[in-house]
Design a protein that fits this description.
Blueprint: H1 3-9, H2 12-20, E1 38-42, E2 48-51, E3 55-56, E4 64-65, E5 74-79, E6 86-91, E7 97-102, E8 112-115, E9 120-124
Antiparallel strand pairs: 1-2, 1-9, 3-4, 4-8, 5-6, 6-7, 7-8
């Protein structure tokens, strides 16, 4: 999708976050304290990224996940902005800026994918089939 089309489709905050590597305010976003069962997809491309099973409360003010559904759905790159060295996380298909990954998460992998709500669309488990994500229902079986 072209940048001009995205400007029409997305809110100004969603565009700033996904296309201009922005960050939404902590504790003032849709999913930081949201724990319903379901799938989180890239707002731009619809690519499945995370499930609620990997989501945890990191007290950082943004949604945090221990791992993506598939490593191939995420691209990582070095981010040296804001006088820091961090690892940026982008979606593979949509190339949307999602957030950053840090090495201060829970076991077993110790990772915390700190993701902007403005880059995500949440699909409740009971709507996966209706929304075309029925192949991911098995991720919610015990």
């Amino acid at each position: 999708m072209k940048k001009n089309d995205l400007k029409d489709k997305l809110t100004p905050l969603q565009y700033k976050v996904t296309q201009e590597n922005g960050t939404e305010p902590p504790f003032e976003n849709s999913y930081w304290n949201f724990f319903e069962e379901g799938l989180y997809v890239d707002l731009v491309s619809g690519e499945p990224l995370f499930t609620s099973k990997e989501k945890f409360d990191s007290n950082c003010g943004w949604p945090s996940f221990t791992k993506p559904i598939d490593e191939a759905s995420i691209k990582e790159k070095t981010d040296t902005s804001h006088q820091m060295i961090r690892t940026e996380v982008r979606s593979s298909q949509g190339d949307s800026h999602l957030g950053h990954v840090f090495n201060d998460g829970p076991k077993p992998n110790g990772l915390r994918y700190c993701i902007n709500s403005a880059a995500l669309k949440f699909i409740p488990k009971e709507k996966l089939k209706e929304e075309g994500y029925e192949d991911y229902l098995n991720l919610f079986e015990n």
